Each structure stands twice: as structure tokens, then as C-alpha cells.
Amino acid sequence: MQVKRLFCLMLCAFSLLEAQPATTRASTVAVVALEPSSCAANINETFTVNVTVRDVQNLYSVGIDLYWNPYVLGVTNIDLWLGVESHPDGVLHESTSVPNPPYVFIIENKLTQEQGKYVLSATSAAPASSFNGSGSIVRITFIVIVFANSTLNLVSSLYDRPPPDGWSSPIQHVTIDGSFVAIPEFPSMITLLAFMDLLVMVAVFSKKLLKKKVLGARHQRS
């Protein structure tokens, strides 16, 4: 357990180091990223990645494509965080046109596990205002299927609010991918000590048995 905890802390440290350059650029350019960027777990354990956007201005539409190795990871849950009126830590504003209830228009929300692919496309709708700032787009929970590593490749698109007589324009931004590293199963300290004690007991018993046989053989020769 101590070894596993140390392994996870090392991954977190590397993740923070990787994120440092992006923080500098985020002052002028929006960033779409997987958080944490480096994940680790054992077989049959789950972990969650958060697709976020940081420091964006005049955001009205988002598009996300995420790819992974389907033989290594499987998706167990997808939690959309669209509509800040319903999800304060999310992104995009909800339309409040009457008689419709507040909503964000979901164009596509599709998981294809056998291909290791998830696609999300959504937009605000008039008269909703554009979104400014940072927030979560979607949170995805994976389960580890086999002991192997996998990249988490992210493709993103951001669009601003269209003018009354025009079309939306792409928002310049940086996309940061992620990765998954499988953690080997380490025996607990108690199990390891018990196994060592068993080995010592077997060695002592074998030594005594061997000594008894040697003495018996010498006695017979006498």
C-alpha cells in the first residue's frame, strides 16, 4: 500500500509539472484539458477524468472527442456539466425562453466503447448569453480492464456567440491530452511479513529434519 501511494504521489507531481507551462499560456489563450492529466489505478478499480476549459471568453458552443484503448479501459459513467444555472462549476449558459424550461442544446452525446471513443457536441441557444471564465464540460469515469497503459487523446473545438446576422467563429485555444498508467498489485506489508515468517519456519523445520536424518544415518553406521 505504501508503494502504491508513493507511485500515485509521483504521478501527481509529474502532472503538476506538466500543467505549469499551460497555466502561463492560459492568461492569453483558452485551454481545454483533461484533469488530472495523468491517472493511475489497479485492475478493476475506477478513476475519473474531468474535461475542463479555462480562461475562455464569449463561449457559446463546445465540441469534445476523446479516444482511449478500449481493451485497457471501459467507461462506467458520463456526467455532463453543461449549463451553469444547473451546474455552478460547469460551462455554457442555459436558454430561458418561454415556454421551454432552461436548457443547453445537446447536438451529440455518444459513447462507442468498442472503438474507445466518446463524442460530445453542445451549444447554448438564444436568448442565452455567452460564457466567460473556467469550468467543467464533462466528467468521465473509467474502469481498468487489464494491466496495461493507455493514452487519453483529446480533440476539442470552441465557438463564440454568433452575431444576429452572422455565424459563430472558432475560439483559439490549446488542448492538453492525458494518459493512464496501470499500477501493479503490491502485497501488503502484513501479507509480506507473514509470507517471510512462513519461509523462515519452513527453513528451520527443514534444517531440523535434515539434522535428525543425518544423526540417524550416523547412528545406523555406528
Strand content: 35-45%
Fraction of helical residues: 25-40%
Rg (CA only): 28 Å
Number of discrete helical segments: 2
Shape: elongated
The strand count comes to 10
Mean pLDDT: 81
Order of helices and strands: HEEEEEEEEEEH
Instruction: Quote the distance from N terminus to C terminus.
Output: 56 Å
Overall number of structural domains: 2
CATH topology tier name of the largest domain:
Immunoglobulin-like
Main beta sheet? 10 strands, mixed
The CATH architecture category of the largest domain equals Sandwich
Structural class: alpha+beta
Unreliable spans: 1-26
CATH domain class name of the largest domain: Mainly Beta
Key structural traits:
222 residues, alpha+beta, Immunoglobulin-like, 10-stranded mixed sheet, 2 helices, disordered N terminus
Task: Write a brief structural summary.
The protein has two helices and ten strands; from the N terminus they run αββββββββββα.
